[in-house]
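question for whoever is on the cluster today: can someone run the full assembly for these? two chains, 557 residues total. i dont have access anymore since they changed the login thing
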Amino acid sequence: MSSSNITSFFRQEKKTTKRKNDGGGVAIAKLCSKIRSDLAPLLVSSTDQLRSTKESTKEAEERLKEFDIDMRYGPSMGLTRIERWDRASALGLCPPADVESLLLATSTISHCLWQGRV
Amino acid sequence: MADSEMGEATLERKLAVYRNLDERFVIREERYKGQQFSHIYFMRLHHMRSQLQSLIPKWKPHLPVNTVLGLEEGKECIIVGTLYKHMKLKPSILDEYSKERSAIPLVKPHNFMSTDDHLILEDESGRVKLAGPMLAPSAFVTGIVIAVHGKETSEGDFFVEDFLEAGLAPQVDRPLDSREDKFVAFVSGLSVGTNAFNPLQFQLLVDHITGHLGDENEQRISSKIVRLVIVGNSMHISHGFFSGQTVAPKDHAKLTEPIRELDIFLTQLVAALPVDIMPGCNDPANYSLPQQPLHRCLFAGASAYNTFVSCTNPHHFELDNVQFVGTSGQNIDDLYKYSDAKDKIEFMERTLRWRHLAPTAPNTLGCYPYVDKDPFLIESCPHVYFVGNQEKYETRLLQGPDKQLVRLISIPRFCETGVAVMLNLRNLECHALSFSTNL
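^ ran it for u. tokens below:
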């Protein structure tokens, strides 16, 4: 009796029901992040493993900063980089695919370069 | 259902197929993460620019389209961007911090225009001041997207020779096969809870619409009313209650009485016909556009009926395939403060030509900071465009270059004028219903 786990009947966390989507007006970001989480394992580049991690992170960050500053894809403050990429993609602006693969790698920063500074 | 007296054959109310299209104005999935308004302007520019770019080849096919940064002095070209109107009389929060005491009073009640106003065109690359007599600043406001043809001058301004607005959006054909008259009634600015509200006058309106007034002929007319749209400011909650401070018990009645009184009238209405109720600037709803539907718990009696529909502001719906779009007046009132036109109907026409319901949002009109859309863009031209809480009843039938036909209606405040509006779905004809209790 004493060895049984108390948390099995005394929940530590509230049981939350998934909010049903009534259809219509689904934000682009949410839909894309769902598709992306299904596809993520397939898209990480294998060449990253060969280079030293520090170098590749620096290069990745440079590439992402370029993406942040590029005015064709709209303002970068106030959304995560992946949301901005998804928005640009949904608008048919063809954002670069290498940026997408960089963003899927978990080591990159999710917010734009000005986040927290402005 | 309007019953006739003495148990004769019941007169049945006409029905119309209704589709509520407010989904794009409902704030549901959006999350505020500290974003600013630059995104909504980006979305607006992107969308309008693609529309304008499809129209430019028909307008001036031989001129190149440049970005603002790509302008060369003396080279004739076309640029597309968002207009910004610089107005020195526009109240600015920074004026409160300026060291000098300015002679201009802090807030001018009616209009902030001045002869010094000038226009600037802006796209992602930069901005340029627009010069020349073609664009009169008094007819434009900040936030609209246009294309301008001209060239850069030696002073660095862009001299405008011609400009292009998007014009009326394409319109879905209105069904022309209806043979019977069906009416939609509009009323606005009831202001229950103020001294201006006359309960007898509103009761007359309610009785007329529900068919409890008049003889069989009049009841027959009332039975053709398929829907009532209440266009904002149905009640007036004193703005002192919006300050966020606790309401003293003795003041509770002042807060709840108007709501309860309105609910009593509404229950009579929804028992008889479908009613759409929109929030306005004095209703207990959020301040910024799009205003979210008034909560059902405010209307304990009326919300029990399935004919009661609480709508957003702006409101978009379809009745028997006729497209209706309307607002409670904030968009047009804001245009009135920052630009000039011969009447309110002209402001309404301009918003249709600019393909945007509220171009001054978010500059001078409160608006939600959307990140991936601008819900006020007009993609398809409506058949009926109505605006509430105006001074007087005005209407015009607007004809577009592509066979679009729009009925524009300015609905007056009922508490001041006693006037409601009736629209015939069959032919888009409009007339006023006037109620008076003066003997």
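summary bc i know u wont read the tokens: The interface with chain A takes residues 23-24, 26, 28-30, 33-36, 38-39, 42-43, 46, 124-125, 369, 371-372 of chain B (CB under 8 Å). Residues 38-59 of chain B form the longest helix (22 residues).
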